[in-house]
Each structure stands twice: as structure tokens, then as C-alpha cells.
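From the shared-data thread, chain only:
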Amino acid sequence: MDIAIRAIVLYLFVLFVMRIVGRRELSSLTAIDLVLLIVMGDAIQQGLTQDDYSVTGAVIVISTFAVLQVGSSYLGYRFKGIRSVLEGRPVVLIDDGRLVDQNLRRQRLTPDDVAEEMRLQQIASFDDVQWAILEVNGRISFIEKSGGE
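Structure, as C-alpha cells:
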């Protein structure tokens, strides 16, 4: 039972850390991010199982994580308020060709970050964008202005 309680606590902690880190950072992993994730995984494993290297201990931890993940997914599906806490909400970064500075600061993004994503999607200028939206998965969606404007 001790292993299951540690798994629950660490699951909640990792969920909290992932929400704090921000969706943009999680969507674009660099080499150092990958190394840090591996180190975090090792540190979490030590906190989960301590000196228990048994198969039973591993099954308990994995089962607990699976139940928590399915449970949080179901709660997010059933309750919109919980979904926004677990997953976040899309954030408008550009509105009618103008950067929304407050949202950029909140998401720790620079205009250069947005411009880079625009170039990757073959968009030349902020003036060409009706809306840019940072999605909950960390990607930026661009809706270009229609040709008549």
C-alpha cells in the first residue's frame, strides 16, 4: 500500500510540474530536455520504489499510474472545469495581426518564437495572420486573413 500512496503523490507532483513548465516547452524537446526527463524518471523511480525491486512493486506502481491517468482523463471528459485545470486552454497570441503581449509573457514566448513558427508554416508577416493560437498540446495554430482584407 505504501508504494501506491507514493505513486499517487508523485503522479500529482509530476502533473503539477508539467503544468508549471508550460505547454510550449513540452512540445519542443531539446537534447537537454531529453536528458532532464531521463534524470527525472530515475529520480522518480527511486522515490517510488525505494528498496523494493520486485516485480510486484513495479506492477503496483504502473497500475496506480494507469488508474490515475484514466481517472483524470475521464474527469476531464466529464467536467469542463477540471479539463481546463488538467490540460489548460488555448491562448490567443496574435489577434488581427497584432501580438498579444500579455499572453506572450504569460506563456514565456517571444515574438521571435512566434515568427519562427510562422515561417515554418510559410507565413511571412504578422499582418498576414488573423489569429495565432497556442493550443493545449503546445503547437501554434495560425489562421490567415482572407484575401479580401
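Residues 2-87 form one domain.
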